[in-house]
Amino acid sequence: MSIQVTARLPNQMVDALDTAAKQLRRSRADVIRLAAETYLEDYDDLAVAIERLSDPSDPVHDWDEVLNVLF
């Protein structure tokens, strides 16, 4: 099931959206949907990274020491 969402965008963003839609041969809605999916995937990845960085039990390694072990 899909739910319709309405948002106001600045004219310049709509122009860029229309340009992208034309180049991709997609509708405005398809480009917005793809942009939202990409943003939310990145947001989820960032949330996981922040959670892991905030975990005090997770060891922190010095970059120079890591390089010495690898090379």
Assign a percent range to the helix content.
Answer: 55-70%
Strand content: under 5%
List low-pLDDT spans: none
Principal-axis shape equals elongated
End-to-end Cα distance: 53 Å
The number of helical runs is: 3
Order of helices and strands: HHH
Strand tally is 0
The overall pLDDT, averaged over residues, is: 93
Give the structural class.
mainly alpha
Which radius of gyration do the C-alpha atoms yield? 20 Å
**Major sheet details:** none
List keywords for this structure.
elongated, mainly alpha, 3 helices, single chain, 68% helix
Protein described:
The chain is built from three helices and no strands. The protein has 71 residues and is mainly alpha-helical. Helix 1 (11-24) packs across helix 2 (28-53). It starts with 10 loop residues before the first helix and ends with a helix.
What's the topology here?
Layout: H1 11-24, H2 28-53, H3 63-70
Structure summary:
The protein is an all-alpha fold and 71 residues long.
